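Sample intake sheet
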Amino acid sequence: MADIIIVEDTIEIGNLLRDFIIKEGYSACLCVTGEATMEELQKNHAKLVLLDIMLPGMDGFAVCQRIREDSDVPILIVSAKVEKEDKLNGLLLGADDYIEKPIDMDILLAKINGIFKRRFDVDMLIDGNLRIDKCKKQVFINEQAINFTSKEYELLALLIENSGRVLRKEWIFNKIWGFDSFSELQTLTVHIKWLREKIEKDQKDPKRILTVWGTGYRYEKGN
């Protein structure tokens, strides 16, 4: 089941979009016609539709109208039609947003993340192929669930929520184990090692969980 349905009749562009979206931690499928899109929506309760306007047969405006007859799935129009009338038409037919081609991938990702945050992912942390479901307290890599102990989960979530910040070892330890814990600071070092074994491509050359010597650790997204 795909999170995002990409509707794009130019296969090269569609594949690029799909690869980009999958790299950012979402699942995605590609449809090249409006008719195929409607069929996909019948069997796949997707969370977002990226919709091109200029399609063979049923165009994107007609697809948008059809979707809105029985679904409130978010629709983000991605089109080379940039006239004001086209944008207004798409929005009046029920699209949630409109982005112009050629696509700025950073803006596209910001819009996708914004839609998911507002509608679905208030309790989701995503970093590339790594996803944390805070409701279920589960960690996924490439959409595969990974076994984590409760402390490993809490530690990873804390690091990602503070991405880019240098966190002191003592602060992390007190957050996870508490001031009155009988554990020692070395416990944190061991848990960091275990996390790296599970989420880093090369635990000896970590790209996500970085050691800041003499201070603590910093989590870097996008690695």
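Comment: The longest strand covers residues 75-79. The CA atoms of residues 48 and 73 lie 6 Å apart.
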